[in-house]
Recover the amino acids of this structure.
């Protein structure tokens, strides 16, 4: 397992997933794509955004969050949401933690955003959300700052 695990729950936009895959290749993070995807992994936009980095990505396709939890029963999962007051910078991340991001149009289901490990990226009040690939990069590099690559 990588030092960092990035989970995209039902991602919808191929370019975001491609950008995140490239980030994973460059940082050594594992990428878990969970549930129904809003595109095919063979989509030209996904491939183009990931460029020639796809071969370097530790990519895992998982059917459900429950399946992921069963695969990693000791895993520590952090859920990114705009509905939490706990900032990602307040967390002391550890190697092999999972950071979970929801679909671009609706975010994570309520059952995850109400957990005590739900965290947020601070934003100006009144704004809906940051771009998914930007959000992943922000939190991933905080974890890298704390634990290294």
């Amino acid at each position: 397992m990588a030092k960092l695990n990035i989970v995209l729950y039902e991602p919808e936009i191929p370019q975001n997933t491609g950008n995140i895959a490239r980030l994973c290749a460059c940082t050594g993070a594992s990428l878990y794509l969970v549930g129904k995807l809003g595109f095919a992994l063979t989509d030209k936009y996904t491939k183009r955004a990931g460029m020639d980095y796809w071969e370097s990505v530790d990519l895992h396709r998982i059917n459900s969050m429950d399946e992921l939890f069963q695969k990693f029963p000791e895993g520590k999962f952090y859920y990114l949401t705009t509905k939490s007051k706990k900032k990602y910078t307040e967390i002391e991340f550890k190697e092999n933690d999972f950071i979970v991001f929801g679909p671009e149009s609706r975010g994570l289901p309520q059952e995850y955003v109400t957990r005590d490990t739900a965290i947020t990226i601070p934003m100006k009040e009144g704004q809906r959300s940051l771009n998914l690939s930007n959000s992943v990069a922000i939190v991933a590099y905080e974890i890298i700052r704390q634990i290294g690559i």
In short: The beta strands are 4-9, 30-34, 58-62, 77-80, 97-101, 118-119. Residues 4-147 form a domain with the Alpha/beta knot fold (CATH 3.40.1280.10).
